[in-house]
Design goal:
The structure holds 2 protein chains of 2 kinds.
Chain A lengths: L17 H12 L2 H35 L5 H10 L1 H25 L3 H4 L6 H41 L5 H6 L4 H30 L4 H20 L3 H17 L18 H5 L2 H23 L4
Chain B lengths: L1 E12 L2 E12 L3 E5 L6 H8 L6 E6 L8 H4 L3 E4 L11 H11 L5 H9 L14 H13 L5 E5 L7 H15 L5 E5 L3 H4 L5 E6 L2 E7 H7 E6 L4 H5 L5 E5 L2 E7 L3 H5 L2 E4 L3 H20 L1
Parallel strand pairs in B: 3-7, 3-8, 5-6, 6-7
Antiparallel strand pairs in B: 1-2, 1-4, 8-9, 10-12, 10-13, 11-12
Helix pairs in contact in B: 4-5, 5-6
Classes of the chains: A mainly alpha, B alpha/beta.
């Protein structure tokens, strides 16, 4: 009916990008997504640069004096673990973000504004899921590489100033392998934790109050109840496996410990892909997100 | 094509019937006022029209089923659900960016122009704005969208009279044309009565009266009766009577104008008075039915 709508003829309006703008809107609202990892990165950098200037020359001298293959680890270990607090922060931020993502907008009634625009519930939920699945890991990776680079540069300067050869530092820290290991570690953790994020988004869309308690207490109660009733701990083991199992499934750990991963040969991609828990988790994630979108459609502001 | 067409629209919440088989038809280019007491079902009706809640019965909005085709419908429909739904952390510039980014029919220049007429700073957050300014911002965003249907649910609630007046002026002068349809609910009946083309009274989930404003004017008459003719006037069965400054004002439904003119000063009743009269008659009926 062209005669009925002569005024509606957008000539050169830009193509709408609902998903892109919905992700940006999450970053506007939740500045902790980048501020928290940034703060932790600054803290790590500060602590490590003190360590680097004071302790590094001693360690390199000790390693050279003992003249064995082993002691590099002692010199290098702090460098390898530097990204860990940053990664941990991104995971924590992601989980708390998910818990509030679909709950907060109902509580402050702003959902009525978001729903007045042509952005589907599926797009809105995907944009929120993109934060722990894409945005936070990317921020974690960039910050970790940046912190490592600064620390390596600082270490080099310190060693040179002390009349030591920086080559020993560069030989021990894999310039290429470290970022690759980090990237791999981030990817497997995102995939492994995906159902946790999905679960938190689902509870966030469902709960009328205290989404944190609804998300955390039922699984814990189930584990405790099972333990009391049957003296078994299958639920508890399942929860622990889902939280921390990625290290065991995706890496070849030395002596079974989740300690230092420093070699590319320790990455076990095929073993990870062959883990049924990965695929079951991803299917569960998809189901959680579909239900979360459905709930967002039906739920009213609280 | 009707903008909104509802037949037997019904919505229940548990045992509460919010909408009791409503029939409603709004043509393109009309401004319908949906008027009723609190809890009458106005907001429920709007929520059904906007595809925010599922319903029973038949409902087409711009030819679409609002529940199953909501995503497509939202390109052509705009709504202000409440004055307080803009998120408090949002900056004014971000609000404009976001709507421009997701809405294919948003005219950024028009929104900027409307905002330029206000004192709203582009860098302010919504939480820093007064209630009136938040409404101005929301209205600027909505008026810059080239929608076919605009739904306003109590858009001026909590605003002072100056903002309420400019709100409707802006809507009429800068937005409304014969291709758009507006549906508005409000408590401030007296402020919208000159704006509306159509009115629907809604009470306890039912449409009690649905009419164009012209039809209201020709059907309902109010007479300021001369005291000595009061008994005579009452014999003509007014639907409502009230006293003002010692004189009786009687409201008639479908009476002969010539005949009433002999009894006193005849005029068209205000929407507010008509509302009281019609709703009063309803509640008397309801009590009668209950007995």
């Amino acid at each position: 009916m062209s005669t009925a709508t002569p005024t509606i003829a957008p000539a050169a309006l830009p193509v709408p990008r609902p998903l892109y703008w919905s992700v940006r809107r999450e970053l506007w609202e939740n500045r902790s997504i980048y501020l928290a990892p940034l703060a932790v990165a600054a803290l790590v950098l500060f602590a490590m640069s003190i360590h680097g200037t004071v302790r590094l020359p001693q360690r390199v001298r000790a390693a050279a004096a003992s003249d064995r293959g082993g002691p590099q680890i002692t010199a290098v270990t702090p460098y390898a673990v530097a990204p860990a607090p940053i990664m941990f922060t991104t995971i924590l931020v992601g989980m708390f973000f998910c818990l509030d993502a679909l709950y907060g907008e109902r509580r402050d009634r702003s959902i009525l504004f978001w729903k007045s625009l042509p952005v589907s519930d599926r797009t809105a939920v995907l944009a929120k899921a993109a934060v722990p699945f894409v945005i936070l890991p990317a921020i974690g990776f960039v910050l970790s590489v940046a912190v490592m680079s600064v620390l390596m540069a600082l270490g080099t300067v310190v060693l040179l100033a002390n009349g030591l050869r920086p080559a020993s530092l560069w030989a021990d820290v894999g310039v290429v392998s470290e970022p690759l290991i980090m990237l791999y570690g981030l990817a497997v953790h995102v995939l492994w934790h995906a159902p946790i994020y999905g679960w938190l988004l689902l509870i966030s869309a469902w709960a009328r109050r205290t989404p944190f308690l609804w998300a955390v207490l039922p699984p814990l109660a189930l584990a405790a109840g099972e333990h009391l009733a049957f003296q078994t701990s299958y639920v508890g083991a399942f929860l622990r496996y889902r939280l921390g199992g990625a290290m065991k499934q995706a890496f070849i750990l030395e002596g079974g410990k989740t300690g230092n991963i420093s070699r590319l040969s320790q990455l076990d991609l095929l073993g990870f892909l062959a883990t049924p828990g990965l695929w079951i988790g991803l299917i569960a994630t998809a189901a959680f997100l579909v239900v979360a979108a459905r709930l967002r459609r039906n739920r009213e502001p609280i | 094509m009707s903008s909104i067409e509802a037949r037997g629209l019904r919505k229940t919440f548990g045992t509460t019937v919010a909408l009791d088989r409503i029939d409603l038809r709004v043509e393109e280019g009309r401004i319908l006022g949906l008027i009723g007491p609190n809890g009458a079902g106005k907001t429920t009706a709007l929520n059904a029209i906007l595809g925010l809640i599922p319903y029973q019965g038949e409902l087409r909005v711009l030819g679409r089923d609002p529940w199953t085709e909501r995503d497509q419908l939202m390109r052509d429909v705009c709504f202000i659900a409440d004055v307080a739904v803009l998120p408090r952390w949002l900056r004014v510039s971000q609000a404009v960016d976001y709507v421009a980014g997701v809405h294919p029919r948003f005219d950024r220049a028009k929104a900027e122009g409307l905002l330029a007429k206000t004192t709203i700073k582009r860098t302010s957050k919504v939480r820093e704005l007064s209630k009136g300014m938040v409404t101005q911002l929301h209205l600027a965003l909505v008026m810059a969208i080239d929608a076919q249907l605009l739904v306003l649910d109590e858009p001026t609630l909590g605003l002072d009279v100056l903002y309420r007046k400019t709100f409707y002026d802006a809507l009429l002068n800068d937005y409304f044309d014969r291709h758009r349809t507006i549906v508005v609910t409000t408590h401030h009946v007296e402020e919208v009565q000159d704006v509306l083309t159509d009115v629907a009274f809604i009470d306890r989930g039912r449409v009690v009266l649905e009419s164009s404003m012209e039809a209201v004017a020709s059907r309902y008459l109010e007479v300021l009766v001369h005291p000595e003719r009061a008994a005579e006037a009452r014999a003509l069965q007014p639907i409502h009577e009230r006293q003002t400054f010692g004189r009786s004002i009687l409201l008639f439904d479908g009476a002969d104008r010539q005949r009433l003119a002999g009894l006193g000063d005849v005029r068209t009743p205000s929407l507010a008075d008509l509302f009281v009269a019609v709703m009063g008659a309803q509640s008397v009926e309801a009590q009668g039915a209950a007995r």
